[in-house]
Input
Amino acid sequence: MITLTGVTKSFGAKRVLQGVDLTVDSGTSMVVIGGSGTGKSVLIKCILGLVKPDAGTITLDGQDVTLADRDAFLARFGMLFQGGALFDSLRVWENVAFRLMQGALKQPADRARAVAIEKLRRVGLGPDVADLFPAELSGGMQKRVGLARAIAAEPEVIFFDEPTTGLDPIMAGVINALIREIVGEMGATAITITHDMTSVRAIADRVAMLHDGVIRWVGPVGELDATSDPYVQQFVHGRADGPINPVR
Amino acid sequence: MTPAVPLAALGRATLGAVAAVGRVAIFAGLILARMVQPPFYARAFVTALMQIGWFSLPVVGLTALFTGGALALQIYSGGARFNAESVVPSIVAIGMVRELGPVLGGLMVAARVASSIAAEIGTMKVTEQIDALVTLSTDPIRYLAVPRVLAATLAVPVLVAVGDTIGIMGGWLVGTTRLNFNSATYIRNTVDFLEFWDVGSGLVKGAAFGFFIALMGCYHGMNSARGAQGVGAATKAAVVSASVLILAANYLLTEVFFTS
Output
């Protein structure tokens, strides 16, 4: 279980997170929605330790993440970055097997390659892709490789940062379905950042809305349409009029 | 405008410069500390060695060749004013190995390598590849900076040695074909005049310049601002700062090596 309590983060005068309280139960798929620039990515970077919060606590299974052994802590996580963040200088299989080729999880190269090819197959890519470089792949294929990399070490918690941004609707649907299937079969905890409502409905067990630096609403995905919260309603229906100022 | 306004601006600029030096020094310390602690990334080191050393050979060689030739012409025409044309071989040799080989070689490598490192690491930063490294339990300084700094520190002295040799050959080529020097005499004067420390000091300078080149490339790349403009600014800052450091370090090392 991941618990955030009173997490704040500012960049200069800009207060991005202003006291975020959020609990994500183990094995559930939480989707965090919110407008662009509301701090959704900062939120998951705080959990991972990529950004240091100004105040507040973040715990994983009751242990403060800042006190945990860093390598052991990160080994429990996988992350799919918005743009894929694949390493240009490495081949596809080396990207996927990156974690398996160093540190505590280090394996022989042929074994790591076999695992990478299996994970590529799991995301619908053939072994012929393994020896290509990321620049030779389409955007959708890069996202799939990023997904394969995120699940390569079978993490307990997986983050998805805008997994369908920049993809056509069909490829977005494929990625959403893959995320749902993989999270389900691995029994992993998933936190997804998105403002794509199709993704929300496809991926989420629970939804949290981040607005003005705090969690404005949180509940099961089935209650998303029924809630009377005007912020959620404006966001879900994509209305220009409402309490959320479209010009931020 | 009160007198305090320019003083305040001067104070801010001074504090900013001191803070920047401090940040670079801390970054250099982090790299040096990781050089002696495993894990080491041998493949990244070999790749960096090829990129920095092997692929810089043509530009360093051509620079040295033309510089050695021009130096021979200049010394010949200058020496003719007091009947000292015969010093061409020895002055070309000492000029190349002590100063021009290390400095021009260093500046050419700075232009080629510091820019390349800063652009590559800067792009990795803005495309979240450095964040990805962290989430994959990999220290970006250890994985990206240490192999490059170590490779540059080892490769640039070798480039300087090659550049010295080619530069002296350039002088010999011009001396024997344009200035009517006897080939055997030219070579004997070159070899006889040079001392070990003439060459050794240039190689030590090369190692220092290599360290600064890669350090500046990595530092500015890792601190790149967002977007194409941010990466462009980081690249420019890397080349400028590496070049200035090379020239400043060259003066200081010359003071240390040759004035005592």
Remarks:
- Residues 73 and 178 of chain B are 9 Å apart (CA to CA).
- Chain B is about 85% helix and 0% strand.
